[in-house]
Amino acid sequence: MAGDARIHVEVTYALPDKQRLIGLDVPEGTTMLEAAKLSGIEEQFEGLVLDKAPMGIFGKVVANPAGQVLKPGERVEIYRPLQADPKLNRKKRAAEKAR
């Protein structure tokens, strides 16, 4: 994290029964992963491991959250692992429909 200037960002994570949206001011140069850790969100959800969690900004997945520097107003979204592969589900539905 570099610089004295600060920017406002948000960090969000949601489970079916519990959601959090945390606004925070971070130093310019803060990465997605750093902001997520600074938000304290990891302690609010049992089993959430930020170092391994997929993340994105406004619905677009970011491959390297530890290297993605945030811009003012961006929202870091922490994604849950998929319960089922969407491709497999489509194939399964197509096979059932064909029967």
Describe this structure in words.
The protein has 99 residues and is an alpha+beta fold. The protein has one domain: Beta-grasp domain (Ubiquitin-like (UB roll)). The protein has helices spanning 32-39, 86-98, and strands spanning 6-15, 18-27, 55-57, 60-62, 75-78. Strand 1 (6-15) and strand 2 form a beta hairpin. The relative contact order is 0.21. Pfam families: Ub-RnfH.
List the keywords.
5-stranded mixed sheet; Ubiquitin-like (UB roll); 5 strands; 30% strand; 99 residues
What is the topology?
Elements lengths: L5 E10 L2 E10 L4 H8 L15 E3 L2 E3 L12 E4 L7 H13 L1
Parallel strand pairs: 1-5
Antiparallel strand pairs: 1-2, 3-4, 3-5
CATH class (first level) name: Alpha Beta
Q: What is the total tally of β strands?
A: 5
Overall CATH architecture:
Roll
Number of domains: 1
What's the rounded overall pLDDT mean? 90
CATH superfamily: Beta-grasp domain
Specify the number of helices.
2
CA radius of gyration is 17 Å
Give the overall form.
elongated
Query: Uncertain spans, ≥5 residues at pLDDT below 50?
Result: none
Beta content comes to 25-35%
Short description:
The chain has 99 residues and is an alpha+beta fold. The chain has one domain (6-98): Ubiquitin-like (UB roll). 21% of the residues lie in helices and 30% in strands.
